[in-house]
Q: What sequence folds into this?
């Protein structure tokens, strides 16, 4: 009888040992998957930290101020949980095997993110050069005439003008090129010394102003006018005043009265 009980006890022990081995084998098979899951979570947290740093940079660029120390500490907590994650993976924390948790990969956009994107769009819009002359407002335009012929490239002096007409870029370019050519008669358009070789030097004149020798352009040959360009930018716009019809009518009536 005792031998039968001993055999039953041995079979029970063998069954429990087999179950333990199966459980251990299952844990070993699940370990690589668990490590992969928490590695992905670490990667997502790193991406969030990079996004936080980028948002803070945009805030500084837009003039929203420097982030507080509390914000920096909260953002830094993402990298302090590495040991806890490893402990959870190996099952050493909380006295048992690690538990699967759902990963939140996509972080919701905060109000500050939307404000930063709006500020960046406004900055881009402000830095974009305004070249639109097609309106009836009074426009302050900064421009300069360029000569782009090879070996004689030159940017002439920068000027500003008020433009009230509604025109396109081609019309403005033709206007300022013609004005530039007519202004050469004043003999005050300076060029570098290398221009003495331009067309044999017959279009450049040497002058002496206050004991300083310089060179001025006095004319352009017709076949080289095609190398003239105009760079311009609209600096600001102003509304024009209305015509004073009533005041003008009163003046005309007063003139008629005086004549009669």
A:
């Amino acid at each position: 009888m005792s031998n039968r009980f001993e055999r039953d006890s041995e079979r029970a022990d063998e069954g429990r040992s087999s179950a333990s081995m199966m459980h251990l084998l299952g844990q070993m098979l699940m370990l690589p998957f668990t490590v992969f899951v928490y590695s992905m979570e670490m990667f997502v947290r790193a991406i969030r930290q990079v996004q936080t740093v980028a948002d803070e940079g945009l805030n500084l660029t837009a003039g929203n101020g420097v982030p507080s120390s509390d914000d920096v500490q909260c953002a830094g907590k993402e990298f302090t949980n590495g040991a806890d994650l490893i402990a959870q993976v190996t099952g050493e924390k909380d006295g048992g095997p690690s538990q699967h948790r759902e990963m939140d990969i996509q972080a919701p956009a905060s109000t500050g993110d939307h404000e930063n994107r709006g500020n960046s769009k406004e900055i881009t819009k402000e830095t974009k050069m305004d070249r639109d002359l097609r309106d009836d407002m009074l426009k302050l335009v900064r421009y300069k005439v360029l000569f782009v012929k090879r070996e004689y490239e030159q940017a002439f002096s920068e000027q500003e003008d008020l433009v009230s007409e509604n025109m396109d870029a081609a019309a403005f370019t033709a206007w300022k090129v013609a004005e530039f050519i007519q202004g050469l008669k004043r003999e005050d358009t300076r060029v570098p010394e290398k221009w003495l070789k331009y067309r044999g030097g017959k279009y450049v004149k040497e002058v002496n102003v206050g004991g300083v020798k310089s060179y001025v352009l006095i004319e352009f040959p017709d076949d080289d006018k095609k190398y003239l360009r105009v760079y311009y930018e609209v600096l600001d716009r102003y509304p024009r005043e209305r015509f004073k019809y009533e005041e003008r009518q009163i003046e005309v009536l007063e003139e008629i009265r005086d004549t009669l």
Q: What stands out?
A: The first helix runs from residue 2 to 62. Residues 60 and 66 are 6 Å apart (CA to CA). Helices lie at 2-62, 69-76, 82-90, 111-127, 169-183, 245-259.
